[in-house]
């Protein structure tokens, strides 16, 4: 091939040199002035023609080596962009333009419950037909362009409804692709990141499920000019494996509808719907388990001696302050909503149990003090005797029990056997035991209160069973309702 190329060049150079010699020979002949001028003009024309032919052959060879120069016209001339007004939609004045949409969700970066929004990166692709961009092609191959040509033609003016922030990626160039087919079909693809509003319901937080949607709509063209469709229904939504820190995505599905504006009419709208389920494990470690431990810790005071005032009071105050700290921390990380959340119900109910344990000891202490005051007023037992009996009762289980100390006066002794049984029997009335059931008189409310006051240790005994059973019942109801 190289030898052939050299041979052709040598032939062309030989022709050029022979032409120049001929011109010189003509010029050397004795002629008049007009003949010499014509000969010079002829020589110049011949030289120009030879140079043009030579350059054209070289340019043709370079075009064969570079495939980007196979077209003799520019892309704008091929698509006849200057011949049409692309400020108007395709088929203006006729039926509405059909635009089919396909999305590929690359990732969902963040779903914030404090700001009530989510951030998503996706590849948005639109398909439509614009016969003004059709071009002849022998092999029916499409032409692909970047963002520089997109600005010169018509594209759907789709925007994201309820969007807070959005942008098209531009590293290293704007991530926009335009593919034009010979029959006028167009594929327009763009990589965009959008942060959109998601109206969340926190009534079941943190055991909640949120329904969020990304909505697409044409800004200028209503349903009479532009109709948006999903290209393949639910198959139009493609997603990569998405992993979020606080949520996992249960379901993705596509839908469409109409939106009405009083000033401009009905607009076609596309929806990308997805269901988010919150991970509960984080909140179990940070909120629920510490709360349960504080409630159980408050029950320890029921087994501490009621006379140990500093121990029981300090334990109750510590658990109350800890519960207040947990409630404050959870509330600070939540949006300020005007309704009660599930976590609020659990925290405040647990706080109530802790608070009631402190109140329980206050009741025990008050009843004990009231009982001692009554006994001191009666003056039935001296202080030394009371202290000795108290130490005797404490020796058994470490707790002070009033039923082990008999503070009433001893009953009168029955008559001894020294007396005459016949005389005593004659003097005493004939009392016979009556066979049958015993008759129990029902105590009144005042008597029950007096009995509880006189036996204040029973309050702790009942609380040891009542508080755990009540809290267990509350947990069963709570987790069965919200799980």
Automatic annotation (TrEMBL):
Range of residues in the leader sequence: none
Record-annotated Neurotransmitter-gated ion-channel transmembrane domain positions: 287-374
Pfam families to which the protein is assigned, alphabetical: Neur_chan_LBD (PF02931), Neur_chan_memb (PF02932)
InterPro entries noted in UniProt: GABAA/Glycine_rcpt, Neur_chan_lig-bd, Neur_chan_lig-bd_sf, Neur_channel, Neuro-gated_channel_TM_sf, Neuro_actylchol_rec, Neurotrans-gated_channel_TM, Neurotransmitter_ion_chnl_CS
Membrane topology summary: Multi-pass membrane protein
Catalytic activity: chloride(in) = chloride(out)
Residue spans crossing the bilayer: 38-55, 280-304, 345-368, 465-482
Family: Belongs to the ligand-gated ion channel (TC 1.A.9) family.
Protein name: GABA(C) receptor
Source organism per UniProt: Labrus bergylta (ballan wrasse)
Phylogenetic lineage: Eukaryota, Metazoa, Chordata, Craniata, Vertebrata
